[in-house]
Amino acid sequence: MSDSGLAPFWRSIDGFLRSATRSASPVLLVLLLTLLGAGAPASAHGRLGSAEGRCRLFIGPDIMNFTGYMPDSSKNEFCEDIPATGHMIIALDAEQDELRDMAVEIRIVKDVGGEEKENADIDAVTVAYRGPRTYPTGTVNFEHDFPDAGYFVGIVTVTGDHGERWVSRFPFSVGMSFMRTLPLYLLMGVGVIAMFFIYLRHRPIHSLKTADAEPAE
Predict the structure, then answer these.
(1) What is the pTM of this model?
(2) CA–CA gap between residue 137 and residue 126 (Å, rounded)
């Protein structure tokens, strides 16, 4: 559809929203604005997210391509949240050559509510760990079995010979994808209901004004 064909549609939407904001209660307006905000693209989980069609882990000024597999249950790749429990394989491929000369350390901890709580007893919350080592090929393969669903944090630390130390943290879930998206669906439902009541409250006023504007026979 051309831009000129879309103009009447957008004018009608704009008119409805302007009228709705005048007649709606503050509570409904808050719900509507929250819904619009929820519809925006979600930010990446920490330093891990999709960019340019790839799943990327940002580490300091450098980037590693992230690929996750669950070979025992699915051939599909995952980027952030792990869809189910079980055997997981993560492959990290460095885009910059300097990462091949730096030591890479990988740790997975339970999500206990922040770094301060983690550092209070890091060993107690650690579920998987691989000490720092260099990977001359630029590819890091990491495997782990997740027997239970839950929320975790991946921590990738890169250190260099000249004092460089970059830490990338990314929260993720295992077998909890539905629970992570459930609040969004609930919010969308509340938003639809709110917009419906706004429409019902607005419609009689609009109809009355239209009737008054019609010339008498």
Answers:
(1) 0.62
(2) 27
